[in-house]
Amino acid sequence: MSFSKKIIAGVAAVATLAALAPAVAMAEGDAPATQQQTQNEVKIFNVMVHANGGTFTSGNNTGQAGDYMVTVQDGGSLVSALPQVQRDGYLFAGWSYDKDGKSPVVATDFVSAYTEVYAQWTKQKPVVDAKQFNVTVSTNGGTIADGDHKGEAGDIQVSAAQDSVLVNALPTVTREGYTFAGWSYDKDGKSPVVATDFVSANTVVYAQWVKKVEEAQFFNVKVNSNGGTFIDGTDAGCAGDTMVSVKKDGSLVSALPQVQRDGYLFAGWSYDKDG
Predict the structure, then answer these.
(1) Which of 49, 40, 35 is nearest to 74 (CA)?
(2) Predicted pLDDT at 212
(3) Are 212 and 179 in contact (CB under 8 A)?
(4) What is the pLDDT of residue 57?
(5) 194: which residues sit within 8 A by CB, 6+ positions away?
(6) In what order do the strands lie in the sheet with 218-230?
(7) Which of 17, 83, 195, 261 has its Cβ near the most Cβ atoms within 10 Å?
(8) What is the CATH number assigned to the segment(s) 132-211?
(9) Where exactly are the structural domains of the chain?
(10) Do the beta carbons of residue 57 and residue 64 sit within 8 Å?
(11) Gap between the Cα atoms of 193 and 171, Å rounded
(12) pTM for the whole thing?
């Protein structure tokens, strides 16, 4: 190869490396902003719902039998996401993670992965002049949300036929700041009512509640340097006023910035200018 051809080949190689440099930098550096944003999005999980001999009466698969897929946000309530189902000659007895009903779904279960649930059924017995029993329902701090007693608090009474499913006779209840956690035969929730409990006598049940986790409140604190300058925080090097955010019940002093003033020693903070 002649000397001039060697020079031309070297120039071409340098141009090729320059063209590849951005791609290499992208491969070795941080992911693009759009990819980083995707990684921070809330996860959504699929829940496979098996009608288990029944048919769906709500959702996109209304009137159909078999399986139905719903989506639930990570940490969302499982029970709230499930469709309604029915089966001729049977009473719905809740949901289970297995087909035989040995691992029941409860009101406080949340979704954190792909899940499968199966409808559970109880053979409906023919009712011939069935005896009626009184069921005393204690809202236990809540209020009735449906039926003839809607809006009422305290204790109410409903009627249920002998050998009927107890939970089917119970109303919907609500309580501000709390999540409903099922029913119990005692006020403290030590004897829970399950989906397969039948009525055979006058009964008393109590609503159970779980307190919702409240989000922390934050308050703004206006800080005046009062002749000094800030030496840390977002307004470092500036004088006058700055604003900091403090969590409710958080330490005020710990949230305040540091300050300095030529010829003076810092003597603390005051709620008024004159100390």
Answers:
(1) 40
(2) 87
(3) yes
(4) 94
(5) 94, 104
(6) 239-247, 218-230, 259-260
(7) 195
(8) 2.60.40.4270
(9) 44-123, 132-211, 218-260
(10) no
(11) 14
(12) 0.38
